[in-house]
Amino acid sequence: MRYVLATRFETDPVPLSELLRGLWWICAAVTVACVLARMPFLIAPGLSIDSYSNLDGWPPMERFVSQGRFGQFLLFQAMQGLGVDPETFATLFQGVGLACFAFTAPLFFAAFDKPRETKAFAVCLPALLLVLHPFQAEILTFSEASFSALLAIALGIAAVFITVRAQRMWWLGCVLLILALSMYQLVLNYVGVMVLVGLVRACVEGPGVAGPHWRRYLPTGVATAIIALAVVLYLIINKLFISMLGVQVVQRGQMIPLDQLGTRLDEIAELAKWVLTHPLLVQTASSVRTAFWALAIGGWVAVCWLLLRSWRRETPMALVLVLMAPLVGLGVVAVGATWWPVPRVLGGLVALFAAGCFWFCLYAKNTATRVSVSLLAGLLLISSIAIGHRVHNDQRQLNAFDSFLAEQIMASLRALDEYSEQTPVAVVNTKMRWTHGVSLATTWMDMNISAFYVSSAIPARMTLSTGRKLNFRQAGEQDVAACANAAVWPERGFVSIQADGSALVCL
Predict the structure, then answer these.
(1) pLDDT 10s digits, 96-116
(2) Rounded distance, CA 321 to CA 301, Å?
(3) Element (H, E) at 246
């Protein structure tokens, strides 16, 4: 049976086989460019704090289900069945996930185009900004998780694209979105921004087909309905997994209580201040920040001007949507019980930044404007790629610092006459915290922090550096008290034997 699509743009159905006609080469070009730009992550991935925890094998299913990510567990189990361990997974599949995301990035902006009329200029630059923004580099430092997260984003974008372009195949879009949600719930932020962009476009461009006024909003209406249906079905399936396994949903898998909404608004305000001063992750020159915001915010201001110029009865609704755009971009992060706005979960905001560039590219009326936008976007892409490389270089440097410290700990332990491999070892980190003596520009929250800051990562870090498995024990209050007045790394005597015969490492 041949499926066909009928959109608000054309009265004649378009064969499904032509769904990507005119887009293949655009998607391929963006994919190649992004893979080349992110090559250091692909050929020499570093180790994050989560990487160490996974060295002994994939986490149990209960951990994933308690966070609503049963699909991620099933994917990892499939990899394990193929003999793929976490380290191999990182080096083999990280590039695949990136390629999937990059290939669908142009579809993010082309979904609401007329079939076969997508302008390469309008979607290529925003797609590159969407994938290569420095916030997106952080997920690549968590190499084991990046594949499933990037694959989920790609599936979410493809789901909306198929739903809009081939409405008779809405069921396929729904299935893809359920799969995406089962691996990475933050995909909702991307598809939310995608639909918002479609709604604003429909209002700006006005009637595009003959028939009732509402027909031009049909694609976004169908997409919204399918997203809602997919969310409901995902929640039902996840609830079945939780019931069957009898696991408790952890806080990060829950919604924020109503009595904490005031606090959350304050937290969002603090995040807004940070994003305003760090739009490219690191503290950059003021000229770079100004150029970034000129492109990101300027595009949204320009589309508001277009809305006002072509006033219709739905224009107020469109303007309200534009004002709500930051909350849509923040999405799941804003309503989750756990507030942990690391750069990798701010992809919805990155989509809004890229959409600002998209509005300029789409509605530029003269060559001078297109050239100016191209130059500005090109400079920001160069800056984004460079900062992405800095993220990777800092991670590799941090891994080297951690490895050296592990070797020094082992050497100090062996210098103790009372030490043997059966000696219990406790590590207390009260002074060094998450970094070493040399600070790294891209250390932020849990990105590029030392393995010695997370107790679960220390055993694996020691094993990787020394080839030995030490007899670690959990540090207690008495160990913290002992380190308060003892020598700490890098001072001599930072490793000592305690009265109970165990070794204590003070950092």
Answers:
(1) 999 999 999 999 999 998 777
(2) 13
(3) none
